[in-house]
Amino acid sequence: MKNQITVYTTSTCPYCVLLKNFLNEQDLPFKEINLEKDAAAAEKLINTTGQLGVPQAEVNGHWVLGFDQKRILEFIQE
User: Fold this and answer.
1) Residue 44: enclosing H or E segment and its boundaries?
2) Is 59 or 78 the better-scoring residue by pLDDT?
3) According to the lineage, what is the superkingdom (predicted)?
């Protein structure tokens, strides 16, 4: 089954870069949404998770707050 990964970022977030690099190293394709460029996505994120901090990732329907490699890997489909 194909993984569905969406990463919510900002341009100045160093942990966002770490998260994207980690996903690339794991050969996990992802969609990136930069919240500075998409106000509607930022509002949706706040309404969904209650958090505006980045990075946040939605991995196969599960939310991962921050750069948490272990949690991301827990939600990856084998």
Assistant:
1) helix 39-49
2) 59
3) Bacteria
Instruction: Sort strands 31-34 and 62-65 into parallel, antiparallel or unpaired.
Output: unpaired
Q: Residues near 46 by Cβ (< 8 Å), separated by ≥ 6?
A: 52
- The SS3 call for residue 56 is strand
Cis peptide upstream of residue 55 (ω within 30 degrees of 0):
yes
- Cβ-Cβ contacts under 8 Å for 64 (sequence gap 6 or more): 56, 57, 58, 71, 72, 75
Q: Is the dihedral of CA 60, 65, 67, 70 positive or negative?
A: negative
Do residues 20 and 33 lie in contact, with contact meaning Cβ atoms separated by under 8 Å?
no
Distance between CA atoms of 72 and 64, rounded to whole angstroms?
Answer: 7
